[in-house]
Amino acid sequence: MFLLFTRGGFNLTHIIYNTNVGSNKPNTLINKDFKCPFCNRDGLKKEGRILRETNEFLIVENKFPVLENSYPAVVVEHNSCNEHIGTYSVEYLERLLSFCLDYYEDLQKTGSYKSIAFFKNHGIFSGGSIQHPHMQIIGFHNNNYEVNNDDFSGVTILSNQLIDWNFSNKPKSEFFEINLTLKNKDYLNEFCTYLQKSVQFILQVLNTKHQCYNLAFQIEEDCIRVKIISRGPTSILLLGFGIHQTPNNLEELAAQLRVF
């Protein structure tokens, strides 16, 4: 979902995944008998893993740090397993993103990390394992990621002084990717409105079969960008040959989402 490289490290595009840690991760998407770890706030307190807390949100240390040389944290978005970005009010989503951005910026100020990745997995084909709504913020000690301007270009849905919103015509994955850029961080409410519409459009129109998506945020000094990526089984064309399939109806979809 994001490109990693290491200076004088392992490989330009790889990071070590600890399989011993990964094998112990619970999966409430597959095994419904697992108790949700994020519904039990008292249990998280007893474990001493809560980093920040409000009545609505939590940031906790990830109990299963599978990526080496990193500091992973989980943002628990809601008290209920049954809510998600598509069901929140825009005002709630704005408070959530403000909470995340405050933590992201404080992590950045420590100077301890080459880069910080802020992302969300939703659904079984997204790389997610826990149904409870959450996002992740990972500080990488040795790795960095590259984002090109072309990654956020595409077929325009809306473009004005505050917002650039489009369907990617050069997806980093394949098929449907929606790009959203906020050019002034003071207008986070506008950003949240179009972010939620994008998620709802994926779940209700583009991907009713799998109901999966990723969010990949790029936080810059003066703007916020996010890729909203519809997810399903990944094709052999991408995995085996690096060929990215791009839909031929992006103009039609852009017009549809514009009035969604």
Automatic annotation (TrEMBL):
It comes from the Bacteria. Residues 17-142, 146-258 form the DUF4931 domain. One of its GO terms (biological process) is galactose catabolic process via UDP-galactose, Leloir pathway. One of its GO terms (cellular component) is cytoplasm. The keyword Nucleotidyltransferase does not apply. It holds the Pfam family DUF4931_N. The keyword Ribonucleoprotein does not apply. GO terms for molecular function: UDP-glucose:hexose-1-phosphate uridylyltransferase activity; zinc ion binding. Keywords: Plasmid. This is Galactose-1-phosphate uridylyltransferase. It comes from Priestia megaterium (Bacillus megaterium).
